[in-house]
Amino acid sequence: MATERDSEMAIDVPEGTPTSLQSEAAMHHPFGWYRTQREHGPVHYDPQRNVYDVFSYTHVKEALQDSETFTRKPLSGSHSDTQTPFSYLDNAMVWSDGSKHSDAKAQLFQYFRPSMLADLETSIREITADQLHVAMDDGTKFDFVSEFAVPVPLRVIMGVVGIPQADHEQMLAWLETFREVMNTEYSDKESRDGSLMTETVEYFRTLVTRRRRDPQDDLVSRLATETELSDAEIGSNCFDFILAGQGTMSELLANALFLFDDQGLLDEQPDHDVSDILEEVLRYRSPLQSRARVTTRPVTVGETDISAGETIILWLGAANRDPARFDRPETFVPDRDPEHLAFGTGAHSCIGAPLARLQAPIVLATFLDSVTSVTIDLDAAEPKWKPSKLGFEQLPVAVTPV
Ligand code: HEM
Predict the structure, then answer these.
(1) Domain containing residue 248
(2) Closest to 314 measured CA to CA, from 66, 15, 97
(3) R_g of the chain computed on alpha carbons
(4) Which of 90, 174, 310, 379 has the fewest CB atoms within 10 Å around its CB?
(5) Ligand 1 atom nearest to CA at 93
(6) CA 388 / ligand 1 centre spacing (Å)
(7) Closest approach atom of ligand 1 to CA 349
(8) Residue 87 lies in a domain
(9) Candidates 70, 157, 248: which one to mutate for ligand 1, based on the most atoms within 8 Å of Cβ?
């Protein structure tokens, strides 16, 4: 990690980070690199990472929608030992393809329909108000990320899944461990240490067994009693819901506050609905900037011939700013109604999008309604250093409560 606050300095970055993004400034604002790359063609081979990078909206979308040719990398990669924790987590649909994936998704999807989520509105409001109270308890200056944008979505998704409050901190630590061991996804390297995840897997194994025996009012119990999913599928998917539902939501909230400030939307009552503005936030600074795939057959993307077995990085963040798709792509237009790729598309498109779309406007509007002013200390803000992620490690704010 960076030790000085010099935006041009090289920083310690996760393996697989493209050379051009290996500075604080580029990581926080990768859009110049995307533009330059796209201007030289939609697809580039990077010999250092041994991957193909794809930057255009059309090609990213086509690849996401062709899940027979562009498959997910299984989590366990070349680990052949079926006892590794990764083999258990591999049961989550996000790591599978074909009928195994579609069968599981069809069963899981019903629990994420907007009509099924409507009941959550009240608890999201209560969690948000409570967390705001905690954040402002010892003064009106706090870190918007660690004291608000991380705990609120974490508490929401843990509540949905059915993780007891007493285990929330432990779960957060496991999520961080998982993210660390997964950093190699953006190169063709296989240096992940699955043993670090043993405790997490044991926790989910036990949780599913207990809920099967003694069902509660939560998702784990419903999946155990109402679906045909195996215990490993239930446990691994629930871990993945927490993983996928916490980080991205935190990043969206921090990116939104940063952009509201940057675009002058904090100074006056915005003319547009917060939900609409958040869609443009998702296009403009997608929390997930890229997704990895592996080719199953020789394929031509744009004019580039790619053999079977190659790693492809689909840059969602670049696609979302492609001038061939969006008018004035580098301009933030609050009422644009963008058809962005921030939630992906095709077989693996985000199952949690309805939850994100319900949750984010409530959380942000509750925060903004609770304060008469917000000042962000951008000099102390710390952007996230991950090639796949765009967010903030820290976003210090000073607020005046209503
Ligand atoms: C702003 C918030 C979110 C963003 C930007 C986001 C983004 C994405 C993207 C881009 C994908 C596609 C991945 C791929 O094609 O490889 C995805 C998939 C997924 N997301 Fe989200 N997500 C968000 C919130 C959530 C939430 C709240 C959940 C909680 C359930 C969730 C659960 C998932 C799961 C399980 C998948 C895998 C789906 C599959 O493989 O079929 N996401 N998400």
Answers:
(1) 19-401
(2) 66
(3) 21
(4) 379
(5) 40
(6) 13
(7) 12
(8) yes
(9) 248
Identify whether 112 is part of a domain.
yes
Ligand 1, CB within 6 Å, residue ranges: 64, 93-94, 105, 157, 240-241, 244-245, 248-249, 252, 287-288, 291, 342-344, 348-352, 355-356
Cα separations in angstroms, 362 against 129, 227, 242, 401: 10, 30, 19, 18
Residue 46 lies inside a defined structural domain of this protein: yes
How many domains in the chain? 1
One-letter amino acid of 221:
S
103 CB neighbour count, 10 Å cutoff: 15
Distance 342 CA to ligand 1 centre (A): 9
Mutate which of 350, 359, 388, 390 for ligand 1? The one with the most ligand atoms within 8 Å of its CB, which is 350
Q: Give CA–CA dist 41/55, Å, rounded.
A: 8
Q: Are 120 and 160 in contact (CB under 8 A)?
A: yes
Residue 32 sits in a domain whose CATH number is 1.10.630.10
On whether the pTM is more than 0.90, the answer is yes
When mean pLDDT is compared across 70-74, 279-283, 327-331, 350-354, the lowest value belongs to 70-74
In a domain, 4, yes or no: no
Q: Helices 198-213 and 231-262: crossing angle, nearest 10°?
A: 110
